[in-house]
Structures are given as structure tokens and as C-alpha cells.
Amino acid sequence: MAEKFYITTPIYYPSGNPHIGHCYSTLACDAIARMKRMQGYDVMFSTGTDEHGQKIEKKAIELGTTPKAYVDDIVANFKKLWGTLGIQYDRFVRTTDDYHIKTVQNMFEKLYNDGYIYKSEYKGKYCTPCESFWTESQLVDGKCPDCGREVTEASEEAYFFKLSEFAPRLKELLLDEEKNFLEPKSRVNEMINNFIEPGLQDLCVSRTSVKWGIPVTIDEGHYIYVWMDALTNYISLLGFMNDTYDDYEKYWPADMHVMAKEIVRFHSLIWPAFLMALGEPLPKKVYGHGWITFGDGGKMSKSKGNVVDPFVLCERYGVDALRYHLLREMVFGSDCPYSNEQMFARINSDLANDLGNLVSRTVAMAIKYFDGTLPVDKEFNDSDNDLLEQLDALPEFVSGTFETMRFSEGLAKIFSVIARANKYIDENEPWKLAKDESAKPRLAAVLYNLLDAIRRVAILMEPVMPHTSPKIFEQIGADEAVTTWDSASVRHGLAADVTVTKGEVLFPRIDIEKEIEELNKMFPAEEEKGKDLEPLKPLTKFDNFAALDLRAVKVISCEKVEKSDKLLKFKVDDGFGERQVLSGIAKYYKPEDLVGKTLGMIVNLEPRKMMGLESNGMILSVRYGDGYRVIEFDDSVEAGADIS
Ligand code: MSP
């Protein structure tokens, strides 16, 4: 039976849409999960959302909606982002899921019955208008951080978990050299010196003032508070104390909990203490990585040239480029500033130059010199050994670095072997060998070594660049049997008479200056946003606007207008019938990509002729960089629906 491997991301607060900061833990876990699957493990990779609490309750009230409706929308965006990034999670837990609620309630009861939870009083600074408790450190100038008003000392009944009782066992766990429970090691001292030595306080696990939470079954009006709810996700999603899932025996304990440094404390002190109290096994490892920081203050900001919307980055530069960049740039344990410029430089140097060129040059030479199929007759020699030996050493190194979150090191090593392969081309000068008929077997051996090197590095990169490696395999004629993780260790796995196929450019070079300019246009910096809008046209009467008939239309067909590089000819359904309309957006779209879309249109413009064709209306577009994008509605909007 395959060995199991259980890896988790934190469950994210859906208090706002996901941003690039959230991507790192999730990408790291995905890459490890993918590698482990390739290595034959039975993998459980979980992620999810942490949906209760005061912040969400308040936001929903502000927006005049319910907390559940509010989080539903944001959770959908998290899932959409994970889909875009190619995250292959096995389970997505929401703390509002019934099975999770059941587990948390059962666990609370058990800990209460076993004497680890007791009732007492929660004391803090209370802001009456906001109905919120704050700790001393949360106050801003001694006042409520939300509304700036005075706070008063107050208390409420609450349940507490006897965290203090576990201090000696937690210290022992953290200092156990064999277990290496918490990585990086520097955080061990932080936990011991800052939290255990000064004396662990018992933990408040229920509140009465925060009602958007899981009800305490044994005491009406109490709701389970934050960390007891959140941390429990790691076992509720396996079916611990609930009947929905039945994988606890199989997957627990987790092999790796991954998170950023600010929540290491909860995972390395509170979580093991809960499990100790329950008498359950402890997770094997907690990994606390650094933060992706933005701008000077470390906060996300749309300062010039630094737009960081992950959807935009994926769309413009490719998912794998973003995956590679984040995992390559971040050194485990340290913070890492994000910059688009750095990402473009990486794409150009590593992906377009080193990797892209190696693949395209090698494939092109195999086509040029052998019509794409290498001859079986080959002459290998000792000068091949250095490249082969470097390749032999790679799988173990990569596996060791990836599974300990040292992606940067692992990827750097892979790319040093790619550089070695590029050097091998220069050393062997295939173009010279090609001129000499008697050197053909040597030429075949050189190209074969290169293709096989590409195969072996592409396998090892696949967990990080899952969309690129299959494209490479196709170009170099590698069939499935020689693209498994194990086969990365095998020398000369490709068929002796391998056939290559020319493919698309894997990573187009980016003109960095131009691209930054483009992004600046698309996403103006904050300081420019505050300026008054410079009108493009003089003021007009409301009636002029009201005179326009604006409707949603559905695109039935779309094609280029002959002899025009600007115009597209549409047939659209306006809800009443079909009409023809022209639009000058041919440069920005493939016609077939627009078919079926629901667009906005002015339908009562007088007909106009362009290139001899009649246009009945105008499709609405919005400026996007140097071009335009159509304004789209989702499919549920009906043709003919009026826009106002
Ligand atoms: N809900 C809690 C976690 C409960 S886990 C049982 C929470 N949520 S969060 O939405 O604030 O997510 C925090 C996590 O998001 C970090 O630990 C990290 O994994 C990820 N990141 C969010 N912003 C980040 C950066 N700027 N950089 C790197 N990771 C960051 O805390």
C-alpha cells in the first residue's frame, strides 16, 4: 500500500479577496503535493477558509448582508484563484461546513468533560458602540482601533482552555532535536523565549459578544472563539469526531503544516496542546515561512509598476511563470519583497533564455540535422560524463529541498544543470559536427544527451511548472513511461530513435520597460487616483445620455472584416432578433473567443457604413493598456436586458 502524505495550508480568512500573499503557502503545498504524488505517495492536500469571527460579522453588517452570504462570494474567489493557479487540493474545508461544526462542538465537550476547559471571565478593553473587546496591544492611542472612541474595562463570561498546563511538554516538543517539529529552527527560540518562558496564559476559547461562530452546546449564548475553531479544521476534514469523512486513521498525523510566520505560534503551541489534551498524535512538522512584502511598508500597495493582482499576472505572463517566480525567489524563513520587475527579469533570464532556448535550440537542431528523428547509431564519449553525473545527482537533491520548503535552492540547482546543458552545446558545436558526414553518430549522441537532459530536468520541474513540463515532453518525444519521477534518475530514458516536434515558444521574452509602462497605464498608482478626473468631453445634458438605448446582446458569430486590421464583424442577438454590428477591436481579440459572450451595446445609433458594411449600433469597450476590452456580462444576463 502506498505511504500516505498529508499536507495543509492555513485556512484563510475570507475577510477580503485573495491576494498574491495568500498564493505562496498554497503554491508551496501544491508543489510538494504534486511531487509526492509523482513519487507514489497517497497524498491528502487540504486548504480552506476560516469564516467565523467578529471581523466578518461586522463587514457583513456594514454591507447589509449576512455573514454567510458575504463569505460565500469571497470563498468562490479563493476557489477561482486556486483553479487559475493550478492548485490540486484534495479537500477544501470551510469552517461553516456542518461536519466541521460537529467536530468542533464534540471536541469542546470532550475537553470540557475531561477538565481541560473551564468557565471563567474574559477581561479586556470594551468599545460599547462597536460591541468589541480589544487587548491593550490592539488599541490605537488607547482608543478603539475601529472607531477611535474611548474604551472601558469590561468583562464577560467565557470558557478557557488550560494551555498553561502544557508548557513543559510543549517546550520538550520544540527542543526535541530528532523531531525537528518546528522549522526554521530560529522560530523555536522565539516561541520559547517570547511565550513559554514568560509563562503561557490559558486560552480563551469562547465568547458571548461575538455571535458569528460555532455555538457551545453545553452553554447557550456562548460561541467558540477563533483558534479552537480554526485549528481543528486539520482533523475535522478527515472525519475526526464527525461522520462525513472517514480518513482520520489513514492520514493523521499531518506530515506538514505550512504557514507564514505570524501564525506559527498558534500552530506550534496551541495546536499541539489541544491534541495533547485530546490524547491524539501530534503533527510531524510545522513550517513557518516569511512574508511576501510589497513596497516599503511591507503592505500590499499598488505603487507604480507593482500591480500584484494574481489573476492579471497569470493572464499576462502565464501561470507557470508566476509559480516559478514565487517559489524561486522566496528563501525559506526570510521575507521576500515582490516586484514585477524582478519577476520579468527572472522570466527572461531563467525561463525564456536558459530553459526556453535549450529546448528550442535542441529540438530545432534535431529537425535540421535529422529531420526530427535521431538515428540509433550514436557515439557517446567520456566528455558526456560531467553533464550525466550532474543529472544523476539532481533528483535526490531536488526532492530533499522541495520537501523542506527550500524551493529556491532546488530550482537554482535545476537551472544550474540547464546552464550546464547549454554549455554542453557550445562545447560540442553540433553545427560543426553536422558538416562532417562521419561525425553523424557523434552529432546524434550530443543531441540525444541534450534531449534526455531536458527530459530529466522537466520531470523535476513539473511540481512547480505543471503546465510547462507536459509541453516539453511533447516537443522532445518523451512518452509517459519516461516522464515519471523515478525515471528522472534513469540515464538515457528516451527511445534511441526518438522523434521531436517543434512546439510553441515556452516563455516569450518580456520587454521589461514597455511592460511596466503598460501595467502603470492599466493600474494607475494610488497617488494619481486621487486627482480630479480630466474630462475627455465637455459636460452634457442628462437627456443626451438618457436618449441612448443600452442593452445586453449575445454574440452569435464574429469574424474579421477582410482587408481591415481593425474591424470585427459581429452577428448579435439583441433579444428581439439578429443584427450586424462592427467594432474596431480586431487587434485585441481572436474572433472565435468572442462567440457566445454577453456584451454591452448601444442599440439605437443610426446605422453607419464602414468598409462597405453596415453597422447597427456600437459594442461597449473599456481601455485596457494600449488596447480595449469588451465589457462583458455573465451568461445569466439575457439578450435585450437594458443597461442603465
Ligand atoms: N485564518 C487564519 C489561519 C488559520 S489556520 C488554522 C489566518 N488567515 S489569513 O487569511 O490571515 O492567512 C494567513 C496566511 O496567509 C499566512 O500564514 C500565509 O500562509 C498566507 N499569507 C497571507 N499574506 C501573506 C504574505 N504577504 N506573504 C506570505 N504569506 C502570506 O491567519
Q: In a nutshell, what does this entry contain?
A:
The protein has 644 residues and is α/β, with parallel strands linked by helices.
Verbal overview:
The chain is flat and about 85 Å long. The model is unreliable at 297-305 (pLDDT under 50). With 644 residues, the chain is of the alpha/beta class. The N and C termini lie far apart (62 Å). It is built from 22 helices and 25 strands. The chain has a six-stranded parallel beta sheet with strand order 3-2-1-12-13-7, with helices on both faces. Strands 16, 17, 18, 19, 22 and 25 form a six-stranded antiparallel beta sheet that branches. The structure holds 5'-O-[(L-methionyl)-sulphamoyl]adenosine (MSP). 5'-O-[(L-methionyl)-sulphamoyl]adenosine is lined by residues 10-13, 21-22, 24-25, 50, 230-231, 233, 259-260, 262-263, 291-292.
Architecture blueprint of SSEs:
Elements: E1 4-12, H1 20-38, E2 42-49, H2 54-62, H3 67-84, E3 91-94, H4 98-113, E4 117-127, E5 132-134, E6 152-161, H5 167-175, E7 182-183, H6 186-196, E8 203-204, E9 206-207, E10 214-215, E11 223-224, H7 227-231, H8 233-236, H9 248-251, E12 256-260, H10 264-278, E13 286-289, E14 292-293, H11 310-317, H12 319-329, E15 336-337, H13 340-370, H14 385-402, H15 407-428, H16 430-433, H17 440-461, H18 468-476, H19 512-522, H20 526-529, H21 542-546, E16 550-560, E17 568-573, E18 578-583, H22 591-594, E19 598-602, E20 608-610, E21 613-615, E22 618-619, E23 621-624, E24 627-630, E25 632-633
Parallel strand pairs: 1-2, 1-12, 2-3, 7-13, 12-13, 14-15
Antiparallel strand pairs: 4-5, 4-6, 6-8, 9-11, 10-11, 16-17, 16-19, 17-18, 19-22, 19-25, 20-21, 23-24
Helix pairs in contact: 2-3, 5-6, 5-10, 11-12, 12-13, 13-15, 13-17, 14-15, 14-17, 15-17, 17-18
